[in-house]
Amino acid sequence: MLELSILFPALLNGLTMGAVYALIALGLTLIYGVLHIINFAHGAALMMALYGVYYLKDSAGIDPYLALPVVIPVMFAAGYALQRGVIGRASHGKDENILLVTLGISIVLENLALFLFRSDTRTIDTPYTLSTLDIAGAMISLPKVVAFGGALVTAAVLLLIVYGTDLGRAIRACAKERQGAKLVGIDVDHVFAMSFGIGLACLGAAACFLLPAYYVNPTVGNGFVLIAFTVVVLGGMGSFSGALLGGFIIGIVESVGGLWLGESLGQIGIFLIFIAVLLFRPQGLFGAKA
Amino acid sequence: MSANRSRRKFLKQSTSMTAAAAASTALGTLGFPSIVSAQSGPIKIGIVHPVTGALSYSGQLSRLGAQIAVSEINEAGGIKSLGGAKIDAVWSDAQSQPQIGVAEVEKMNEAGVSAILGGYASAICLATTQAAAKYNIPYVVDVGVADQIVERGLKNTFRFAPGYSIVSREGIKYLHILNTVAGKPAKTVVIVHEESLFGTGTANLLARDLPGMGYEVKEVIKHANPTRDFSNIVLRLKAINPDIVIPANYYDEYVLLVRTMRQQGFSPKAIYSVLGGGASSFKFVKQFPDVANGIMDCNHWYNAKDKRAIALRKKVEAMKDQFFTYEVFLNYQCVYLLADAIERAKSRDRAAITDALANSTWDKHFMPYGPTKFVNGQNIGAMPAVLQVQKGDIRVVLPNTLAEVEPVFPWKA
Amino acid sequence: MRSLAAIGVFALLIALVPAMVDSGYLLNAIIMTLYAALLGQAWNILGGFGGLFSFGHAVFFGTGAYAMAVLQVNFGWNAWVALPAAMVLGGAVGGFIGALSFRYGLRGSYFALVTLAFAEVFRVLANTFQFTGAGVGLMVPLKESALNMQFGKTGFLYLILSFLIAAQLVAWWIRHSRFGAWLQAVRDNEESASALGVDVFRVKMLAIVMAGMLMACGGAFYVQYLHYIDPHLAFGASVSVQALMAAIVGGIGSVWGPLVGAAALQLLGELTRNLMGDAPGINLIVYGVVLVLMVNFMPRGIVGLATRWKR
After folding, report:
1. What is the complex's ipTM, to 2 decimals?
2. Which fold has domain B165-299+385-398?
3. How much is the pLDDT for A284?
4. What is the pTM of this model?
5. Buried b (16+ CB within 10 A) or exposed e, B145-157
6. A184: in domain
7. At the topology level of CATH, where does B37-162+310-379 sit?
8. How close B57 gets to chain A, by Cα (Å)?
9. Where on the phi/psi map is residue B215: left (φ > 0), alpha (ψ -120 to 50), or beta?
């Protein structure tokens, strides 16, 4: 069943799919690393971003890749407002409450989409949707190759922000020691909201790269949440390069596991890795020791 | 009798404030009548679908079909034998969960419905039919393809459309006819199916019966919902290179599968779906005209030559962003089936309507079923049809009595 | 002892319900509330008293549900014999996950995520094995008789009530026993509990085994009540979410929190489903908004709010 001629293209497919996972996980890992919260609304936010990309293409004719400069700032603003106005306020800093609040937000967003856009699955057609790139005999979907590049660029930009700007220094300070950050005069609430905003902005980028080869409906986000968590854990919570590599690893494991064990059972490989990393190396493959 | 009933009613009202104050507040605000089924005024019909949650796409289309039928019947003067009583539909949302479906049946029972219709998904239908049976409420299953729904001896349950064993049996038969007429060019098959009840159940039946008819089932590929990427499945398809690919999956996955097949340049002699596929979806045909050409489905379908079906299709397509799907026309027809039974029962009484359904010989529908005949709740005349996308439209190609055009098999891409 | 008496009074009150209420709708709503309260209490024992938040309680629920269905359908066991087996298996899965996670010192979100992953592993396995019916699921044949643990509404009310009372008694015992004090000490500070001589590992193990057994009861009830189970219904995220929501909304670490939370959520669900009109989605939008508002105004749960008023 496992033929070598298939293995090479399968590896490349896994790598490109992994890039999409990495894009989604980059935002999640930032939010986790700084705010220490598990954001259950991540999938719903991705879904909203996908609708944004869809309607820009459908009603204004804007190509998904050209929509990047629109979708990213909008998602950033939405994230900032959501953290500042809802999550930070309603959760009173308690873990169990953050859980319920993000859960509540995801229920609201999912059903808002259902109400506004109906439950139809929507796809867009671009000139390159069905195009492939020939890489040493393997035909790899062009939108996914673009997504691969997009993930690299997004990770680089994030690293630049976090390690090269004043905001980044504040973010890192809040992530490490929020009381201390407060004492030295950092507006912690603002930094938290900025981090959440940047996290959702990553989803905006992910949506632009994902939609040409995928679809959108109100529940589309659910299919990515668990994968994104796995990537975050594998890479080490809060680590961008970890999320990037973690995404690639998960993509490849899913792809090869699918070949080997069948598409349905193949999913198990991802969760076994997830469990093994949590047990034996909870700081992740690339995370610093907590 | 009536004294006893009112005493119980009194007891119920006086205790509900203490024992279960919270829940009864909900009940109180809703103002449910405690006495079951009124004797005059409109006749209440419960219509339950999963209009939110994972199944909301199909659930909303199902509701649309029922809505059209209810308003048509009411505009045409309601139920004549009940003095023109209008149908008062109780619309309800099962939220894609069986236990919510049960709660909705309980609610409809107390709202005094004379019958219930819908369910859509098999898991929901299993739960709702049984809950309705406790109150002897006649229940018309709209889709729910699992065979077990009508195999449990529930006297209240009626399914108008075929279940998956009928559809896959007919699907295999028609596939064999297509292949035989063409001189048997196809010998090998790969089945690609989704992992839940309908896909797995259908795939099991196909994998069991196809070898007996001379086909080699090279592989049965099961995939998760959602599957985010079909590249690997298509790689394997390419490596195996079967003559026929049989998908049994939901719309989202079907779209990705067929798109990826096109992208990877793999075109088998036929893509032949059994239940659920693109050749029975006007939406798919409109959005992916190139990919859609030539694909075939064995699925629920109407008699395309029937004027009433054509009129309904026009009506649905005139609505914004709506497509004429099997959810729409099956629910539309099920409402009419139920209305016919009520008409003949001349009563709002649940037992009378159940009897009328059981003895139904209704033939004023546009499905290729003949007059209805229910045996253990299954309409035994119910049959699927084979469709093929040709020149950008969906055409019936089998059975011959319904066929609009000749099938093209094998398809030359 | 007053709180023990409260459990008795509660049991008595609910036991009287069928004699006075003949609305199937209301009975079903009460049954579903008690069921959600059971799931919530199973979560609370581990998450509330032990501070170990689980996102994957469905793994115990599904184990119980599948054990119940498989033993009846494939092995012809009687439901009453299958029930204790289902509970033991639920407890065993709890023990297995606990042994692995506590051995490696998982806490906080790491523990939460590992339970989530186990639930997913079980879901994929249930989807694969033939004896679980794979994707087709398992159907328990309809044979209504108390001997088969298939009742009318009243019987099911008593069944779920007895499960819940068992759960309440466990919670009460935790609240008032030395074990409970240890468990709460571990929650508040593992290191100092350990320094005081508490066997942290054993305390946590006992908590997760009890949670697993109670959750398995919930799964067994689900199968008996609805007669059908598939991998998604058994191990999907919605059961885990239902359990943690009831506990957190009601107030974690309290004996009555899960029941209060379950009742509030049931009421909210019924109201939104019935009053919000027919436009799909509106009901759940309101549900979600009210959920967020509840957290905003009652950060310590409904029970937390009530105790604050009393003071």
Report:
1. 0.90
2. Rossmann fold (3.40.50)
3. 82
4. 0.91
5. bbbbbbebebebb
6. yes
7. Rossmann fold (3.40.50)
8. 5
9. beta
